[in-house]
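Slide 14.
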Amino acid sequence: MGSTHNGTKGGSAATRAVALVGPAGTGKTSLAEALLFASGTINRQGSVESGNTVGDASPEARARGSSTEINLLNFTYMDDRFALVDLPGGTGFAADGLGALQSADLAVVVIDPAPERAALAEPILRRLDELGVPHVIFVNKIDHARAGAVRELIGELQPLSREPLALRQIPIRDGEQVTGYVDLALERAYRYRPGKESEQVAIPSELASREKEERAHLLETLADFDDTLLEALLMDEQPDPALVLSDLAADTAGNKVVPVMLGSALTGGGVHRLLKLLRHEAPAPEAAAQRMGLREGGALHVFKIANGGAMGRLALGRVLGGGLHEGDELVVGDAAERTGSLFFMQGEKTTKQGAANTGDIVAVAKVDGARSGMMLGRRDARCGAAQGIDYPARNAAIAITTRDRKDDVKLSTALHRLCEEDPALEWMQDDASHETILRGINEDHLAVVVGRLQRRYGVAVDTHPPRISYRESIRKGATQRGRHKKQSGGHGQYGDCVISIRPLERGEGFRFIDKITGGVIPKQWIPAVEHGVRDAMERGPLGFPVVDVEVTLTDGSFHAVDSSELAFRIAGRTAMGDALAQAAPYLLEPIVKVTVDTPAGTASKAGSVLSARRGQILGLSPHPDWSRWERVEALLPESALHGLDAELRSLSQGLASFTAVFDHLAELAGKHAEEVVKARVAKHA
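Slide 15: predicted structure.
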């Protein structure tokens, strides 16, 4: 079963999983297509622009011209089997593939050759370091790189990587175009041939000194991990080429170095060389199994739940530690569940299989208890729980209403399924505003989800920003009598109470004190007065729930026949409503504590953005964990969060992110308060 690497000839029985990751727009889906074509899996290479790639087949991805969810693909190259996971790069969708990334054997970080965009790779490089996943960098679109770009790019990238970068190739230029590369490990030059394997050529004389310099640097990097190679270099001897290749394979698989390859997905330049790297240097699945805590036996690492297809609910996962057959038992929680059909996925196409080998990525039916992130072991397996995923903050929110009330039940079922598929999504029923709230990473993310709601589940909805939880309180005390008296045929209604109200300190909530003496209100009706008071507090004079008030019941009267619980509740509500109006009510708005993480040099701009949104800056400091990053903390009105994510990203090459946590309520006065009250009155009118 063991996959061979360390410079050997391949021929592994196990399937190795390769994740394609990187910023949006760098060409990951195009590279996936190029790998399928170069390996002979497809006979014609599609393009994202034409909308005919094997991946990105969903209507949402086709419409946007970019990935909105992971693509699962398979190919065989020289008898070695590979499962390919193409992860979305867009901020709103990148979280979809984080589960699959955990159990990948190797990640290919796809970037473009512009040095000024190198910083965009930092979040994914950091994530790979956290997960311990070996990775290589593929500089795509190299044919259009300007002179000197690769050197500059390596200079920009190295500070972002925990491991040393190992530049494996240098470009050969013909005027403005890159037409090939020199392989520093093999000391050979190759010319790109569109759609074909590159052909070997002589190393251009003008690159001889550069090749020597870069090769020396590559060997010095490898010698840090190999005393034999270090000794050869110190003795000024030419190292054995087999030793260099063996070290490259071992150091890549061991996550000690990060090889940097060059190429062009659209023309196929460098793609065959990347395939050879995957074949010789991607580690065997045993390393991923060990990293995932699988110590013995077999397991399925579930990284995504898929709903809504013709096959129903499927658990997408990677088979580790041994094969999996239809009908095998997997332990889910405390119970064993028998697997249903197994499917291999090639983009949107599924093929039923009776069994899966170690390392395969499959879709499994009928494991109803499976959830994203679970490790489902065989009965004989010894495995820990999969490491939890730190998803990005859900900074975007919308309120959803169905256009047809008959769809309300269908909506909750659909939202449950969509959130099960996408753990970066969550929904809730807001008890205070009676709104259905959907939260996601950003507005793009939510827009795609709303589209899926209609397309997959037939639920048409309208959306609007969620209502801000404004509150109101009082500045001074007041005393008020509330009397409810009604006479009609038979028993009448009679309730009478006197209350005094006063403001409490912020955050103290509500207090009700009973000071009735002499039985002027019988004990059984005092709770009804409190109920009535609470009723009135649900909507104060300004139209919002009332907080931080103490109410004392001081006096009242009753009628032996006509008094009732309802009458005293109405009396309490009347007294409280009138008292609040006399007590100088004022508006409170929710204030959140915002923590912005942003690349060095952009924190002051982020602070200006927050200040312009009525924010109070609390501090600006270096990031506690990430070198070259900064952190800004501020207090900000919740109403100012709308659109903040996009504004912060626009000033930081899309890298800044923030979290917001409720902190306190603060007085809102002046024109802002007037606008809020006016809008509330108009809504109720």
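Speaker note: The mean pLDDT is 91.
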